[in-house]
TrEMBL record:
This is Tumor protein D54 isoform X13. The gene is TPD52L2. It comes from the Eukaryota. It holds the Pfam family TPD52. Residues 1-14 have a biased composition (Polar residues). It comes from Acinonyx jubatus (Cheetah). The lineage of its organism: Eukaryota, Metazoa, Chordata, Craniata, Vertebrata.
Length: 187
């Protein structure tokens, strides 16, 4: 692909690639010559301005070509270093977040929020609400602990009942079948 068809959009996923329909179109000097000159310009001044315009447009095309070549080279270097687009995005976000944090607006907002937080946490209403929630939490914790202990105790009792029955059956089951149930003690 020739460098005249390079994409200069830095946000484009196809950096450096342009379709054939998207190329720079220089000013047609034949059409421009037919356009009436701005009043007050002599033909010499107009010709000088047109020459300068052509030169600037040519420089723009050259700069776009150089930029596209530099972007390709940058991409190759990143690929060789193992840097991905995601890594670049993370670095950009990190840098942007640091910029926000040192901005005057962020600092003023943070300071104001700190003042409001101080006022709220020092208010009587906040302290009463905090104390109420703290007491409610302690009471809830004690109630759950009591319920948990009761459930645990009941499960333990049930488990021991099952273990005792199995042990009784194992130890005395054969004997009761042999001599009869009337000889064995009742539990």
């Amino acid at each position: 692909m020739d460098s005249a068809g390079q994409d200069i959009n830095l946000n484009s996923p196809n950096k450096g690639l342009l379709s054939d329909s998207m190329t720079d179109v220089p000013v047609d000097t034949a059409v421009a010559a037919q356009t009436p000159a701005v009043e007050g310009l002599t033909e010499a001044e107009e010709e000088e301005l047109r020459a300068e315009l052509a030169k600037v447009e040519e420089e723009i095309v050259t700069l776009r070509q150089v930029l596209a070549a530099k972007e390709r080279h940058c991409g190759e270097l990143k690929r060789k270093l193992g840097l991905s687009a995601l890594e670049g995005l993370k670095q950009n976000l990190s840098r942007s977040w640091r910029d926000v944090q040192v901005s005057t607006a962020y600092m003023k907002t943070s300071e104001k929020l700190g003042e409001w937080n101080e006022k709220v946490t020092q208010s009587d209403l906040y302290k009463k609400t905090q104390e109420t929630f703290s007491q409610a939490g302690q009471k809830t914790s004690a109630a759950l602990s009591t319920v948990g202990s009761a459930i645990s105790r009941k499960l333990g009792d049930m488990r021991w009942d099952a273990i005792a029955a199995a042990l009784w059956d194992t130890c005395f089951g054969h004997l009761s079948r042999a001599v009869g149930p009337s000889v064995l003690p009742l539990v």
